[in-house]
Amino acid sequence: MGLVTSTWTEPSNTATALLLLGRGTDPASERGVDCPGDLPAPSDPGLVERARAAKAALGTRVFVLGHHYQRDEVIQFADVTGDSFKLAKEAAARPDAEFIVFCGVHFMAESADILTSPAQRVVLPDLAAGCSMADMAVLGQVETAWEQFEDLGIADQIVPVTYMNSSADIKGFVGRNKGVVCTSSNAKRALDWAFEQGSKVFFLPDQHLGRNTAVLEMGLTLDDCVLYDPHKPNGGLTAEQLRDAKMILWRGHCSVHGRFTIESVREVRERVPGVNVLVHPECRHEVVRAADQVGSTEYIIKALEAAPAGSAWAVGTELNLVRRMALAHPDKQIMFLDRAVCYCSTMNRIDLPHLVWALEELVAGRVPNQITVDGDTAHHARVALDQMLALP
Ligand code: 13P
Ligand code: SF4
Predict the structure, then answer these.
(1) Which end of the chain has fewer surrounding CB within 10 Å, N or C?
(2) Which residue minimizes the CA distance to atom 1 of ligand 2?
């Protein structure tokens, strides 16, 4: 039989095309954006040395931030590691660094650009490091929902709250409408504040963080919460449902934390008697309810550090972090909550070749992949971010 040859072509950029991560452009998404760099080969044995040399050459001109979900090969070059709350504060606290290299995802780099001075430049080593949750709330959809609330005469009772994991556009919308940004570390404090300003909260874009905080920490019931689906007319809700609701939750979720199920919890409890189940509040409500503890990334790290030797922990968060904690604490049994393990694919876009390329470009006097937020959006987003940083 003759060999059939065919030429593979990139999918075209249509609304339905399945873009390969890092190839092509998708204006409606943070993902699938070309990284224009002349990247070193991943197999280059000199990468660690090159990253070290470039960082040393830049000295205090550069400050490297690393989110806890980053790969080990990248985290080793971070000047500070943290969750999104800590990294936002760290970016704001470095006025002398000319370049902030953000090893995290796009919305985090945008927040860093908003919180730093105009002279400072924020670099995301790979532009394809977006966040699928942030992509689930697009400004036009959110404005349509708000117009619906205005038509119903309820908008003036509603305080918008957006999770840090949202685009600068959404943070700008929230700032314009007298709301606040929150992270998984301060969601309760943000909701306490919001319910002092109004009688309803419009929570974007993570339904799970919103529901878990409202029901498990604020004493609201599941019936107080409604789910606004931007893909359905009027969000799929009646006027009465919207008038009665205390929490209007946007239908967004994290594809990584959304993987954990109640079966994962049951299975690990059977397999490992006495295990402590510790999950992130981006997990589904029933998973958080079935867990022993829930908390942000920083909370999870502290809980594992404080745990007694010999204790067993099944952790429901991103795999890089769980792996690192397991390696750092061999005296404790630390495992991933689900047997089918999964990284956050976009966080993992930042690898050593991208970091080396970004640092070497800076050494050469070029600023690669600079993340900038336009002035008007930045102004309003900053109002909502400052409100978060001022929470009691
Ligand atoms: P935190 O960093 O706020 O814990 O959020 C987790 C996350 O999913 C970041 O993308
Ligand atoms: Fe987004 Fe979830 Fe990945 Fe965080 S872990 S960047 S929320 S997809």
Answers:
(1) N
(2) 131
